[in-house]
Amino acid sequence: MRLNLLLMVCLYFSVCTSNGVAQDREASRPPEFQSVEVDSGKVTFRIWAPQAEAVLLNSSDLPSTTPFSPGSSMTKNEAGVWEVSLENIPAGSYRYQFVVDGLSVLDPRNPTMSESNNNAFSLMVVPGSKVSDLTDVPHGAVAAITYYSKALQRFRRAHVYTPPGYEASSDRFPVFYLLHGASDGDASWSSVGRAGWVLDNLIAAGKAKPMIVVMPMGHTGPFSFGPGGGDLGKQMAEFQRDFLEDLRPLIENRYRTLNERSKRAIAGLSMGGAQTLDAFVQHPQDFGYVGVFSSGVFGMGGPRRDATATWEEQHAAVLADPQVKQGLQVLWFATGKDDFLLGTTQETVRVLKDKGFNVVYHETDGGHTWIKWREHYLPEFAQLLFQD
After folding, report:
1. Model pTM?
2. Which domains does the chain have, with CATH numbers?
């Protein structure tokens, strides 16, 4: 009798407890919703944060947001879902974060992300791009490779694109070194930049030659804009040492590359464009194709703060060497009219033209954004490479 009573009491409390847990779980369960919804250029972003007091959408890539601004305000509905819609978003890929009561968070319902140097972003795609969409064509492969840099005495990483059919062939291919901008990382060109899809589409259409594309890590340490963000000049110098002494020899030993000047190209955006020019003037006989996107020689045309030699004076012998110009197939610049580095580009192009270089320069619309680099500059430059 006592045993039966004890069992009944235990059963009663068990049911009450389980019902309470179930009710708590039900109360804390988020409603069904899409965190990113794309509809004919209109993109709606959502996140469930019922206890939050303020939520922002933060993105430096979306054209409807202001670069370096706190973000776009979102509105909460009765279910605790915050929402904001942006209109007229062009086709392409975009990085974003949510800022929940001051804390930046990734989209918990979107597993696709893009790494930067010391951060990560959620990644979404607006379909319809003629150059960067994933299409039904033969595809190459993008691999992340890790190597030990003797120059820097640490492990480093790079991403490498090999063209369709590379694994099944014994052919050798030209190589294109593609550099990212400040605060980004070696995964940026293959995630938000969609370089693999861009090359796949161009090669399938017969507009670009099959090539190996190497996307190095441009930073050698933490970096952010503003005071205490890191010494960019020091990092750029360290990158050149790693690139020359470790990464390039690794690529040319591990991959089937064609290693003459006419089969080697280098290009970069922003910081990567400045690094591209550094690599070219230090080793001009190594590169037959040079591309600079939204960049130039940093400080070119600015006020002289000390008695050090100008960039022109430092590299006077290279800039005056006729053999450097003869072996240079393409020297290509492009910058948007709204880009904050437009003046730097214009002055760099002027100096190079004054020194007798045949510079191709496109001053486009737009600003300092992935829309220009991914959808325009990379595909335009890639079509010029290694053509007979």
Report:
1. 0.89
2. 36-126 (2.60.40.10), 141-382 (3.40.50.1820)
